[in-house]
Amino acid sequence: MLPTTPFKLIFQSVLLLAMAIISGCSTLKSQNNPEWKDLFNGKDIKDWNVKINHHEIGDNYGNTFRVEDGMIKVRYDQYGAYNNQYGHLYYKQPFSHYRLLVEYRITGEWKTDAPSYTISNSGIMFHSQDPKTMLKDQDWPISIEFQLLAGLDDGKPRPTGNMCSPGTDVIYEGKIDSRHCIDSKSKTYKKEEWVQAELIVLGDSLITHLINGDTVLQYSKPQIGGGVVNNFDPAIKLDGKLLKEGFIALQSEGQPVDFRKVRIMNLEKRIKTPQK
């Protein structure tokens, strides 16, 4: 029996780190590890579901998400007005305890009628609600976002691997943080630069963000709450409910982005969450 929640989090973090070292699954050495599964097969997105704001699930409006050159590409060349048509590409099944590894690059020309905060901005949503439960005009899924940013021309620092919280809250530095986004400690990466983003997710407990193998952010207790998300089904947004699992999605919000690798290592059989 572990005495308190903080001790549980520390125990789980140390346990996972030890297991990672023993198994040799550091980011750069893990590419041939059979425990890694490719969620993207390099050929098509048949195992994925599209949900774009103002459209029904399954409508890949404007061919937003497409596979070319062995990559998932997010593009807007077949759009008219952007009209806040935020989109997400969801893998077909939910996950709870896992490592997720994604290689991405921010690329191309931003769609100029999208909101200005979306410049050189994309993301990976996780612990997301099932896209089938989203209403047609719901802008964002209730989820946690691993935010992906590239630097701007102003030369100011702009870290990637941040946490944003549409319809959710997290515990950061011992308390619920009211900010919609929490910056990571990563350096700034330029457009057209390939970046390796990694998540270590332990159900409704500890979550770790890594960029190019370096830990840049940690927080815990993901839960439904907060604001930002609009036009949702009230029966789904149960504030205070801990998020133990959910769907993984790649984001479109006005900035072209490429994803050339999406891999997962399921940790549920390897990590037994301590009981009270």
Q: What radius of gyration results from the CA coordinates?
A: 18 Å
Q: Count of DSSP helices? A: 1
- Fold-level CATH name: Jelly Rolls
Secondary-structure-derived class? mainly beta
InterPro entries: AL/BT2_dom
Pfam families: 3keto-disac_hyd
Organism: Pedobacter hiemivivus
Protein name: DUF1080 domain-containing protein
Please, could you describe this protein's structure?
Residues 35-264 form the 3-keto-alpha-glucoside-1,2-lyase/3-keto-2-hydroxy-glucal hydratase domain. GO terms for molecular function: hydrolase activity. It comes from Pedobacter hiemivivus. Pfam families: 3keto-disac_hyd. By secondary structure, this protein is mainly β. Helix content is 7%, strand content 36%. It has one helix and 17 strands. It has one helix at 5-23, and strands at residues 36-38, 48-52, 65-68, 71-74, 87-91, 97-106, 121-128, 144-149, 162-164, 168-172, 175-176, 181-182, 195-202, 206-211, 214-224, 247-252, 257-266. Strand 10 and strand 11 (175-176) form a beta hairpin. The longest helix is centred in the first third of the chain and has 19 residues, at 5-23. The chain is globular, with a radius of gyration of 18 Å. It starts with a helix and ends in a 10-residue tail after the last strand.
